[in-house]
Every structure is written in C-alpha cells, then in structure tokens.
C-alpha cells in the first residue's frame, strides 16, 4: 500500500482470514469513508455550505465546485451513517445540516456560503448534478437530519431542490437527477404533480435508452461506459429499494443482475476497473453497481465474490496514490493524471467515488461482509464474452488477471453531432482497452488504433457502427465499421470506410481490417 494511505485514513490491520484476497473488511470501508470525509471537511467554509477543495477550478466555477464538495461528500456520509443505523461518531450530520441551512438562505448570491441556483444544463447545469447527491444524502439520513431540521430550513431546501425539476437536464443520465430529487421530496410528503412529471419523464427515457444485455446507452447515442453502474442502474434501483417498492425493485433489479453478468468480469485481478470511457477520476465508483447488487440481492455474484470486487477496487486505488498526503482524492487515476480528466472535472469531482460506499448499506451481519472473499471472475479460467447490445468483446486471462475490452460499439458521439477529428476522444475511439493501460498525452501516437493516411493527415475513429458480436467455448468475435475523419485537409474522403473485426481466444487476439474506397496513394 502507498506508505501514507493507511495512516492517513486510519485503516485497521488487514484481515486475511475472512478476506484472503484484499485483507479488507467492513471496518476498512468505514475507516476509509471517515478518513476521506475528515480530510475534505478541513476545506469547508465557515458555515459549512461549501467544501472549497484546493486545485484548478472546473469550467463551472469555484462556487459550483464548492457545492460539489459538499454534495458528493454528503453522499459518502449518508451511506456511512445509514449503514451504521444512525451512529455518527464524528458528528458528520450536524455539519451537513448546518451547511444545508447556510447554503439555502440566499441561493444565487455571490458570497462564501450561498449555493448557486439550479438552471438549465447549458446555462448553469452542474448544480443540478449535485442536487441529486444532496437529495439522496437527505433521504438516507432522514431520521437523524431532515426530521430534526426547522420547518423553514426544510422549506428552503425544498425550493432549492425544485430547481432541478423546473430546468432542462443534459440529454443523458442527467434526467435521473430530478428523478432522484423528486423521489426524496415524495418520500417526505412533499410530492405533487411536478415531482410526478419529473419521475415519469426520466422513466420514459430510461426505457428508451435500454439496449439489452443489462446495458443502457447514456443518452440517445451509443455511449456505453461506467455511467451504467454508477448512475443508470444505481439511481432507479436505489430509489426503489429505499421506497420499499417491490415492483420497481424487481424491474430494475433484473436489469442490474444481467448487467453484472458481463460487467463483473471487467475488473482485473489486481482490482482495477477498465480504464475506458469518461469521468474516470471517479475511480472506485466503478464498483457501485456491484455493491448495490449485493445490498439489494439483485446480483448473480456470490457475496464473497462481490466483496472481492468492491474491496479490490477500493484497495487498488488507495495503494496507488489516489489519496494524496493531504488526505484528499486527486484529479486523476492513480495519482494526478491530466489525460484522465474532462473540462467539467473540478477539485471535488473525484468524490463521485462516494457511490462505492453504497456497499455500507449492507449491515455488519450481511453476507456481503461475513462470507469469506472468493476469487473475482477475472481470476478464474480464461474467458471471452461478447456483449452484443454494447458491441463489446471482453477477454480475461487468469494467469495475469488482465482484462481487455475490444470496443466495436461504444462511442461518445450524439446522434445529431457531426464527426470531427478535432473531437476525437481517446477514452472511446480506440479498438481496445484494458485494466492495465490508459490514454497518455494527446501528443503521443495513439495505441490500439488504425489510421488511414491521406495527404499526410492521419484519420480518427469517431462514430462506431457495430456489425455484430458473439462467443463460443473460449473464443469470441466482434466487428464494426467507421468513417475515417481527418484533422487537416478535407474532413472525409468520398466512399472511404474501414471495417474491423476482432477474434479472441485465451490470451490471443487477431484483428483484421478492410479499407474500402481508399484513393490512390
């Protein structure tokens, strides 16, 4: 482990009897949450409404970033306290109650405490994202926080949260933010036609985005990534679980179960999730779906396998420097890493990792924590698995625990968006990803990529059109085609296309490309 992580977070000694693979128990998870929260709260404003963590601001600005610090850490505190039956040895909830009071007194005012207003996503969207974490934190801790607030503070909090119901989200998982806000308001007797509409709209879109095999597209395009586990599955199933809604739990739970059939294979033997897709600075949030499956019972995994995956992911990052000497999660992957980030990444963005602590909703006597750890799916025999809905071919090798994802179906291009090489995204455009590799500087030559060179310009892969996938006994294949686009000269060449197929068996892979319509030279 990183020399300082265990000391900084106050982790207890390893338990290799019940946790032979990771040494982590539920006590390690509680200590990790406590340590991260303690470090983050050192940067709170006097009233506690914002946690202004150090670092370069996001494009949303410092006030929004401070709200993000409050909201995302509140989510970790919510899981921590709710999972302990209301025990709050560090007085977290009093601080979050004070911050809620201070942040909602004069929302929109430019001062040290006031929260920014929730507006349309293209105007001032980030507060809408954070409203879901505030609402979920309040719902998780209702008996110990919300129910003890003065009525005027409750009213002010409701009015601020309703901004999420009255403004336009981005056309993707963002619709689950007003859904989550509405679910909280209804749970405390403040539901109405407005909350019902928000939930109906999100539910309609969620059904539209479901593509099968347990996978959702993140919007109307073909973006299949970690947002499945930490958003598209998490919000609706957790909402149904907290509400005790058996019908909705069964509906969303069946999809999560199917999702985990393939997704659980996408963690390496060292605990690493696949370095693929956007928002990777959320790190161990990648295990949130696995933890939620164990908590709700909607999982194909044995409890010991689930714990191996979630604890393996947490340990993977802690022992590789994700927590700095200041106790804060850095912007990056292991440690700071600019190539991992997006323009919306701010100092508190990594605390979306709090979603992994959903596992703490399983009490100490739950099978997740008392069953001995078992090997992760990637630690067994070599496997090759196709996921036709997403255009994925997943390949794992037990000898080294490495998992590879051959991507023939996921991109980050909206249906109404043109294909421009200037917008090439290395987190989606490559032919393959793994649990031991990641993108480097944009100045470096792209790996796992086939370029067509025309007039000295190398092509980029943007929109990916799947041609199919399948698997048999120990082998599998996936295929796609794309239109090469160029950063210089004409953006496309008439009639030019590239067809690609990957065949994998054991640790071997074969790629075949056919270039059609290439001009002379």
From TrEMBL:
Lineage of producing organism: Bacteria, Bacillati, Actinomycetota, Actinomycetes, Kitasatosporales
Ranges for domain DUF2264: 25-374
UniProt superkingdom: Bacteria
Region annotation (Disordered) ranges: 1-20
PANTHER family (UniProt xref): LINALOOL DEHYDRATASE_ISOMERASE DOMAIN-CONTAINING PROTEIN
Entry-linked InterPro entries: DUF2264_N (IPR049349), UCP014753 (IPR016624)
Name of the protein: DUF2264 domain-containing protein
Pfam families given in the database record: DUF2264
């Amino acid at each position: 482990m990183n020399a300082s992580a265990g000391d900084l977070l106050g982790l207890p000694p390893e338990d290799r009897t019940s946790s032979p693979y990771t040494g982590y128990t539920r006590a390690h998870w509680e200590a990790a949450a406590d340590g991260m929260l303690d470090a983050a709260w050192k940067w709170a404003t006097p009233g506690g409404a914002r946690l202004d963590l150090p670092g370069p601001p996001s494009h949303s600005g410092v006030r929004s970033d401070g709200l993000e610090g409050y909201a995302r850490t509140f989510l970790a505190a919510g899981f921590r306290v709710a999972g302990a039956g209301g025990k709050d040895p560090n007085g977290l909830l009093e601080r979050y109650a004070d911050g809620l009071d201070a942040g909602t007194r004069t929302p929109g005012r430019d001062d040290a405490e006031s929260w920014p207003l929730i507006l349309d996503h293209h105007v001032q969207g980030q507060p809408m994202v954070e409203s879901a974490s505030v609402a979920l934190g309040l719902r998780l801790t209702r008996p110990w926080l919300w129910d003890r607030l003065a009525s005027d503070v409750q009213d002010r909090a409701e009015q601020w949260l309703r901004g999420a119901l009255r403004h336009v989200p981005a056309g993707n998982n963002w619709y689950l933010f007003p859904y989550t806000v509405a679910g909280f308001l209804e749970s405390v007797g403040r539901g109405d036609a407005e909350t019902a509409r928000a939930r109906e709209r999100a539910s309609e879109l969620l059904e539209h985005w479901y593509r099968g095999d347990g996978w959702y597209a993140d919007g109307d395009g073909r973006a299949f990534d970690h947002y499945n586990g930490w958003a598209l599955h998490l919000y609706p199933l957790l909402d149904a679980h907290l509400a005790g809604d058996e019908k909705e739990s069964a509906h969303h739970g069946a999809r999560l179960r199917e999702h985990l059939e393939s997704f659980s294979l996408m963690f390496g033997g060292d605990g690493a999730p696949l370095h693929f897709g956007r928002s990777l600075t959320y790190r161990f949030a990648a295990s949130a779906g696995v933890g939620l499956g164990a908590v709700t019972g909607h999982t194909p995994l044995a409890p010991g396998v689930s714990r191996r995956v979630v604890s393996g992911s947490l340990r993977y990052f802690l022992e590789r420097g994700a927590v700095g000497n200041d106790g804060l999660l850095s912007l990056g992957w292991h440690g700071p890493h600019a190539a991992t980030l997006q323009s919306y990444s701010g100092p508190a963005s990594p605390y979306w990792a709090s979603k992994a602590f959903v596992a703490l909703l399983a009490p100490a006597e739950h099978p997740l924590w008392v069953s001995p750890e078992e090997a992760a799916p990637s630690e067994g025999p070599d496997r090759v698995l196709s996921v036709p809905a997403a255009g994925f071919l997943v390949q794992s090798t037990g000898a080294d625990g490495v998992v590879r994802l051959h991507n023939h179906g996921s991109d980050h291009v909206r249906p109404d968006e043109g294909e421009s090489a200037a917008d090439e995204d290395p987190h989606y455009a490559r032919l393959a990803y793994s649990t031991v590799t990641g993108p480097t500087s944009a100045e470096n030559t792209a790996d796992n990529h086939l370029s067509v060179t025309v007039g000295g310009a190398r092509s980029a892969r943007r929109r990916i059109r799947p041609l199919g996938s399948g698997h048999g006994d120990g082998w599998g294949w996936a295929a796609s085609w794309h239109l090469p686009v160029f950063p210089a000269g004409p953006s496309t060449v008439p009639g030019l296309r590239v067809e690609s197929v990957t065949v994998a068996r054991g640790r071997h892979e074969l790629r075949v490309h056919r270039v059609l319509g290439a001009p002379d030279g």
